[in-house]
């Protein structure tokens, strides 16, 4: 239909459209709504619980050059990983991109962030030309490789981890390439994965349709010029903010323990940040060399982790910027080739996304000196398990993530860490399986799932609490694999507290086999799980911020009353003496202790 | 005994719609009394009686039906001014409530505070005993734990208890026994069994709903007993019905049991009221939009029924009871406009509310708001706003928009105001689109019914966004919800979780489950005075493809209640899935998650006829003023009509303004507006005049 709102007075000239900031603002909302509608569709139509229950997916609207215009984020680390793959795809195909094409991609050596995070890319055409790209990317329940689910800490190269899919057209000019489709399906263990791919294509198709509607309404030129303006405006906003930060060089580091082969080996992740005027560079060259196994982070994933930390620092200043490409234009990242954060081909990399916690910790500690009111103390480095097998109730394959195991985020000035939130890489958007649904949909019995008392890192603003959980299985041919860090028996290095706050807690999973044998599950270890195995897990809390003795006494008392803080810890860490009734504070002794 | 009264208690006003046996109606408004809500009802009724020169008692003796909607529980929840509530959970799961679904509302904002649960941890008491997902008892209920918890509750002055155990959807005996013990030890305590309230799988949603129910229970109970007493004192001998959030009505005693259904019940009659407005034109479907000072509500009515959701959120907590799906977004007259450092305009979600309010209110607000933009654009007349009760300061609007938007963007005040207008319209249109497309519906298939003080100012522009050609604004939208209440049916929803593959579902089991629900529904409706011949049943099942996480509610023919035809279930599911998600997979097994039944009792059939009294006296004295024309992108001088004076079939051409006292209808250039036989203002796209007028059937 004809439009009343297109910028008819802001008429175009041969040199381009006059930019109307109002039209730009409105367009930004429209494009954002497209990404959200796509995500909604994908969540509701997909099969894998990793998609729809846990929300390990993202949908993105790109311009024709592959710049991110808007994204609907559930798993932040994937979200930012969709872009480098598209850059590769655009270079790879050149002009050979047509209306009705659908491209699938997962390969980490051509821009992917993790092989399990597979993307569908659909070019959008209007007025006879390419006008943009739609993408849906998510963590597939299986993507081939030597182990169901793709997580195998014994992997030493990329071929063992997954079916590598460099860009491939599975639909060409609207025609499904049945041979390619069947080839991919033949390499994936679970049939519903292909159904999920259909859902992804469906949501990209709808997104493309919506984009064309917007372009029809505004004209292509108006649309493109204004979207460029929006990208520039995000960049301007970031520049203005970074310009206010003190110039200089800042250093932070974090430690990862265990590479899947040597469970006590320590790896340093280090970041040197340079702020110069309105630009900021994150240089990770000081990080250790790449590991022999899976604990390597592809640059697409590492870049995503930097962006997550950066957005957290912006949000803490009350600055909300649409997450588009412009936002990151003033940000430079350096990852040394051959290091943990830019491994050489053909290194295995499936653990890379998990190293987001380390990257974020580096950045937060580095900037704590100049932005004490923005940074967050260390998030406990996340640990959970992924498990696959056959459900004896249906004789069908199942796969699930036990992401109800939740660690705590760090505290920050003015705010305690959110209890049992978990992993930085999903930035609080990863859903936990509902306890009943976990039992209904996989062969498990969940014994308990609750806050872990005394787990919060002490501080004036304490870390978020971790959790204690226990469950047992009755699946057949079942195996489980951990993907995480901070495991106590491996000698983990906890995430750092800030300004006198305590460090984060640690994690531990104790496995009891049906024969009574016990095993402490390593942080990156695949094990068989015979029917009747019991897992008992401790997930530690986040690190604290500020001197615990400055914490409001009433808060300490309330937590003792609630049974999440022991009287001993109240005394030792917080200098608060709780009376024997457990309901009141011994003011005199508390004052003396806190003096 | 034939007078009917709809009473809608809002935050500021309590609205009364009185309908007399001859169809005449009276609209009355009185100030709400937030500290004692029933008082406003009493005052209003007394005022109405006085207007009829009758005593309250004489007037009330003629009243046969009062339908009433209240926000008393919603307000108590939002202000956390409610009973001390305790919770019994399965041992090991006492933190399921605050953990919610494991996410937070903002991804990157580490400053965002966790919501404080309605029940603190020391009152969330774990109880031993375990039932598995099939409903088999694995370990017996540890009654000693229940007794111990009850002592703790008593010591802490707990008035209300929610009981929610793992898998109680499949086996209720542990919750039943625990409830007996609590009732024995704590006589008088309000008790909610999650299995009785909502027998469906998913622990957090069921637990959260049970807690909300126990929180709301004592509040609504005491409110209702006060109200009932007060009506009895006034010699009221008719029927009192309460609005529920599922869009149906119930008697006070039924609502008191399912108190959570009173949460968000306020606007739940709005969509049904929309049908009153569209009925004159033969539509059984519509969108309703309601724009007030701080928020914008959108809902869909399809085939005479408001759309229902089971994943509602209130105050950051899940409420999983079936509720009218009303999409609320933070866009209203008070929404604040600003320019970010990148040079983009933002509008909302921050709101100046009523205090300090928009800059033009001169109540201390300095930020530019949507209302300020409407004033600058001439859509709102500063002198006649809200019947002239609040004189608005146009200069203050100009100054605020200049400072906050125009100067930072380097554009004129007028352009800036129009920008604000566009932004808020796009936000609202997105809210409407969300609620339709996620159901696989096309908004263009529906007329829009517009309510709320700010609604008619923006509605035409929203409709343009959505390519909707027809909008209807009732003559007096303040009684919109009250009118809707009078036509809502009794409605009770039942659910039983039943996790199995559809192909293995036995007819006997299905019939047995539905028969049990029908019996309970009948019992409830009989107790509410509904005879058998007024009862109907709407059976449905929640289905999904094997391995999917989200189920789809599929309504099936009532014939299935007696002899199920599973082939119909399969066909309907595949078709609905295709509508919603663009594909279906015929050879994929289908899983059943829940069996549902909605039991409906029709209320008396003499419908509310909005046509009965339409005042008016021909085309009015005319005034003119300048408004902004989006089409011409400039201020233009237009006619200002007094809506009250317009009679059926009066028709005007846009651009024009229709003043209604409590609101203003902005008729954009492309539209005509004609008054229908109900007195509603029907705006339609002029370039489709022939088709639309034929469709409207204005005779």
UniProtKB/TrEMBL annotation, chain B:
Gene Ontology terms: biological process: glutathione metabolic process
GO molecular function: 5-oxoprolinase (ATP-hydrolyzing) activity
InterPro entries assigned: ACX-like_C (IPR049517), ATPase_NBD (IPR043129), Hydant_A_N (IPR008040), Hydantoinase_A (IPR002821), Oxoprolinase-like (IPR045079)
Pfam families xref list: Hydant_A_C, Hydant_A_N, Hydantoinase_A
Domain Hydantoinase/oxoprolinase N-terminal as annotated: residue spans: 4-185
Domain of life: Bacteria
Residue intervals of the Hydantoinase A/oxoprolinase domain: 206-493
Coiled coil: none
GO cellular component: cytosol
Segments forming domain Acetophenone carboxylase-like C-terminal: 508-678
Name of the protein in its database record: Hydantoinase/oxoprolinase family protein
């Amino acid at each position: 239909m004809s439009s009343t709102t297109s910028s008819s007075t802001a008429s175009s000239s041969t040199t381009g459209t006059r930019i109307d900031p109002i039209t730009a603002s409105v367009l930004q909302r429209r494009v954002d709504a497209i990404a959200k509608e796509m995500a909604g569709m994908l969540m509701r139509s997909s099969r894998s619980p990793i998609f729809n229950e846990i929300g390990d997916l993202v949908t993105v609207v790109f311009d024709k050059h592959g710049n991110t215009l808007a994204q609907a984020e559930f798993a932040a680390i994937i979200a930012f990983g969709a872009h480098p793959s598209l850059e590769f795809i655009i270079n790879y195909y050149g002009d050979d991109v047509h209306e009705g094409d659908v491209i699938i991609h997962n390969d980490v050596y051509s821009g992917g962030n993790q092989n399990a995070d597979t993307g569908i890319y659909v070019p959008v055409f209007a007025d006879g030309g390419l006008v943009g790209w739609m993408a849906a990317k998510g963590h597939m329940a299986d993507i081939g490789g030597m182990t169901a689910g793709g997580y195998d800490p014994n992997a030493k190269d990329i071929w063992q981890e997954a079916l590598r899919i460099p860009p491939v057209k599975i639909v060409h000019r609207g025609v499904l390439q049945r041979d390619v489709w069947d080839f991919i399906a033949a390499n994936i263990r679970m049939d519903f994965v292909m159904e999920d791919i259909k859902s992804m294509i469906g949501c990209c198709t709808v997104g493309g349709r919506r984009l064309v509607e917007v372009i029809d309404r505004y004209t292509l030129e108006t649309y493109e010029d204004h979207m460029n303006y929006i990208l520039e405006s995000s960049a301007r906003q970031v520049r203005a903010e970074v310009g206010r930060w003190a110039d200089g060089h800042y250093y932070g580091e974090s430690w990862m323990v265990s590479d899947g082969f040597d469970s006590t080996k320590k790896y340093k992740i280090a970041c040197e940040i340079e702020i110069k005027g309105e630009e900021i560079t994150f240089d990770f060259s000081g990080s250790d060399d790449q590991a022999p196994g899976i604990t390597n982070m592809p640059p697409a994933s590492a870049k995503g982790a930097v962006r997550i930390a950066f957005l957290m620092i912006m949000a803490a200043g009350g600055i909300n910027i649409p997450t588009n490409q412009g936002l990151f234009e003033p940000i430079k990242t350096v990852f040394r080739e051959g290091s943990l954060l830019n491994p050489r081909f053909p290194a295995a990399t499936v653990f890379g996304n998990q190293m987001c916690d380390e990257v974020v910790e580096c950045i937060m500690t580095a900037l704590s000196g100049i932005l004490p009111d923005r940074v967050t103390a260390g998030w406990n480095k996340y640990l959970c398990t992924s498990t696959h097998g056959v459900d004896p109730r249906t004789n069908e394959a199942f796969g699930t993530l036990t992401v109800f195991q939740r660690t705590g985020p760090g505290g920050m000035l003015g705010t305690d860490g959110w209890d049992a939130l978990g992993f930085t890489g999903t930035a609080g958007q990863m859903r936990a399986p509902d306890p009943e649904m976990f039992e209904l949909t996989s062969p498990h019995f969940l014994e308990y799932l609750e806050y872990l008392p005394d787990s919060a890192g002490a501080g004036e603003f304490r870390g978020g609490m971790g959790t204690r959980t226990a469950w047992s299985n009755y699946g057949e041919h079942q195996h489980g694999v951990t993907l995480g860090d901070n495991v106590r028996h491996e000698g983990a290095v906890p995430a750092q507290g800030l300004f006198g706050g305590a460090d984060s807690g640690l994690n531990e999973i104790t496995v009891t086999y049906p024969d009574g044998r016990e095993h402490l599950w390593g942080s990156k270890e695949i094990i068989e799980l015979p029917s009747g195995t019991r897992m008992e897990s401790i997930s530690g809390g986040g690190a604290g911020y500020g001197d615990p003795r400055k914490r409001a006494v009433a808060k300490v008392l309330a937590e003792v009353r609630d049974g999440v803080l022991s009287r001993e810890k109240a005394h030792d860490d917080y200098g608060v003496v709780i009376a024997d009734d457990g309901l009141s504070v011994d003011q005199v002794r508390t004052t003396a202790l806190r003096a | 005994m034939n007078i009917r009264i709809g009473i809608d208690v809002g935050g500021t006003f309590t609205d009364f719609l009185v309908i007399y046996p001859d169809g005449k109606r009276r609209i009355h408004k009185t100030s709400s009394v937030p500290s004692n809500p029933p008082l406003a009802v009493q005052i209003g009724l007394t005022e109405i009686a006085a207007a009829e020169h009758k005593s309250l008692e004489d007037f009330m003796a003629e009243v046969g039906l009062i339908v009433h909607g209240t926000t008393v529980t919603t307000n108590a929840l939002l202000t956390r001014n409610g009973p001390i509530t305790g919770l019994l959970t399965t041992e090991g799961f006492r933190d399921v409530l605050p953990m919610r679904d494991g996410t937070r509302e903002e991804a990157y904002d580490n400053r965002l505070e966790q919501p404080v649960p309605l029940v603190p941890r020391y009152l969330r008491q774990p109880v031993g005993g375990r039932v598995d997902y099939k409903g088999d008892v694995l370990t017996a209920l540890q009654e000693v734990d229940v007794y111990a918890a009850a002592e703790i509750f008593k010591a802490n002055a707990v008035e209300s208890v929610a009981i929610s155990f793992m898998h109680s959807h499949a086996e209720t005996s542990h919750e039943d026994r625990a409830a007996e013990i609590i009732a024995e030890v704590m006589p008088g305590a309000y008790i909610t069994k999650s299995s009785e309230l909502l027998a469906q799988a998913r622990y957090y949603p069921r637990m959260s709903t049970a807690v909300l129910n126990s929180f709301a229970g004592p509040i609504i109970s005491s409110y209702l007993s006060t109200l009932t007493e007060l009506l009895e004192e006034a010699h009221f001998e008719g029927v009192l019905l309460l609005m529920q959030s599922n869009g149906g009505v119930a008697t006070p005693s039924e609502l008191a049991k399912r108190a959570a259904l009173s949460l968000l019940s306020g606007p739940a009659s709005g969509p049904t009221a929309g049908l009153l407005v569209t009925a004159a034109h033969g539509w059984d479907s519509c969108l309703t939009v309601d724009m007030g000072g701080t928020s914008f509500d959108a809902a869909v009515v399809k085939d005479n029924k408001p759309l229902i959701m089971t994943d509602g959120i209130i105050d950051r907590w899940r409420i999983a009871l079936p509720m009218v799906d009303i999409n609320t977004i933070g866009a209203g007259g008070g929404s604040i406009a600003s320019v970010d450092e990148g040079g983009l305009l933002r509008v909302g979600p921050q709101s100046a509310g009523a205090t300090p309010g928009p800059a033009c209110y001169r109540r201390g607000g300095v930020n530019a708001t949507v209302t300020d933009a409407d004033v600058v654009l001439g859509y709102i007349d500063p002198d006649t706003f809200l019947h002239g009760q609040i004189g608005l300061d146009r200069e203050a609007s100009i100054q605020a928009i200049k400072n906050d938007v125009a100067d930072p963007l380097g554009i004129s005040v007028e352009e800036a105001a129009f920008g604000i207008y566009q932004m808020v319209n796009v936000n609202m249109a997105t809210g409407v689109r969300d609620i339709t497309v996620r159901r696989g519906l096309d908004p263009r298939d529906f007329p829009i019914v517009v309510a709320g003080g700010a609604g008619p100012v923006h509605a035409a522009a929203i409709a343009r966004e959505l390519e909707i050609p027809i909008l209807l604004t009732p003559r007096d939208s303040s009684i919109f919800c009250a009118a809707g209440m009078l036509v809502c049916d009794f409605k009770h929803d039942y659910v039983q979780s039943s996790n199995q593959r559809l192909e293995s579902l036995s007819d006997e089991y299905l019939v047995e489950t539905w028969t049990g629900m029908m019996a309970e529904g009948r019992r409830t409706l009989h107790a509410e005075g509904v005879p058998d011949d007024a009862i109907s049943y709407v059976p449905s099942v929640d289905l999904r493809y094997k391995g999917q996480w989200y189920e789809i509610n599929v309504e099936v023919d009532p014939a299935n209640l007696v002899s199920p035809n599973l082939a119909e279930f399969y066909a309907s599911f595949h078709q609905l899935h295709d509508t919603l998600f663009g594909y279906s997979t015929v050879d994929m097994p289908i899983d059943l998650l829940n069996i549902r039944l909605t039991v409906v009792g029709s209320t008396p059939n003499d419908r509310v006829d909005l046509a009965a009294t339409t005042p008016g006296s021909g085309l009015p004295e005319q005034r003119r003023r300048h408004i902004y024309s989006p089409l011409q992108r400039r201020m233009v001088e237009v006619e200002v009509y007094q809506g009250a004076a317009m009679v059926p079939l009066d028709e005007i051409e846009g651009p024009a303004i229709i003043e209604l006292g409590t609101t203003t209808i902005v008729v954009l250039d492309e539209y005509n507006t004609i008054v229908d036989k109900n007195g509603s203002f029907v705006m339609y796209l002029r370039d489709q005049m022939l088709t639309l007028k034929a469709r409207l059937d204005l005779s």
